[in-house]
């Protein structure tokens, strides 16, 4: 589904560059935010088709940013995927409980990322519909 707009909320510049490069080469438009606050603000104006949200962020974390996104009716149908280095089963379960629509562990797989994003876009929100 290239052509879709992906909002990537990630404070690590190297991770951001990796995700941006892979998704851009795959035909996606990438909008970048280095913090949860900026991610929420950008989501309200850029109309993303999908949000990739780091959990560990400066300022508000990914969980709080997700709560703020879900309060906006314009963004409620946008799938938000947790991206985190916390790869324990409990971390994945917490992401689901908190309302994330998917989960990507770090380090991000360059080979798999575009297909994973396409899968999240085709599935949409986990609990909507």
Task: Write structural notes for this entry.
With 129 residues, the chain is α/β, with parallel strands linked by helices. The protein is 44% helix and 19% strand. A five-stranded parallel beta sheet has the order 2-1-3-4-5, with helices on both faces. The mean pLDDT is 92.
Which value, in Å, is the CA radius of gyration?
13 Å
CATH-assigned homologous superfamily: Response regulator
How far is the N terminus from the C terminus? Answer: 20 Å
Strand order of the largest sheet: 2-1-3-4-5
CATH fold-level assignment? Rossmann fold
- Could you tell me the mean pLDDT? 92
Topology:
Layout: E1 5-9, H1 13-25, E2 29-33, H2 36-46, E3 50-54, H3 62-70, E4 80-84, H4 89-98, E5 102-105, H5 110-123
Parallel strand pairs: 1-2, 1-3, 3-4, 4-5
Helix pairs in contact: 2-3
Question: Would you kindly provide a brief summary of this structure?
Answer:
The chain is an alpha/beta fold.
List keywords for this structure.
single chain; globular
């Amino acid at each position: 589904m290239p052509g879709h707009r992906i909002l990537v909320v990630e404070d690590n510049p190297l991770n951001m560059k990796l995700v941006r490069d892979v998704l851009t080469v795959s035909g996606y438009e990438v909008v970048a935010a280095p913090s949860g606050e900026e991610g929420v603000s950008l989501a309200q104006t850029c109309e993303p088709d999908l949000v990739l949200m780091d959990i560990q962020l400066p300022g508000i974390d990914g969980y709080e940013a997700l709560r703020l996104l879900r309060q906006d009716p314009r963004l409620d149908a946008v799938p938000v995927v947790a991206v985190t280095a916390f790869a324990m089963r409990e971390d994945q379960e917490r992401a689901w409980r908190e309302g994330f629509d998917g989960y990507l562990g770090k380090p991000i797989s360059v080979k798999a990322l575009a297909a994973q994003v396409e899968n999240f876009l085709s599935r949409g929100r986990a609990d909507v519909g």
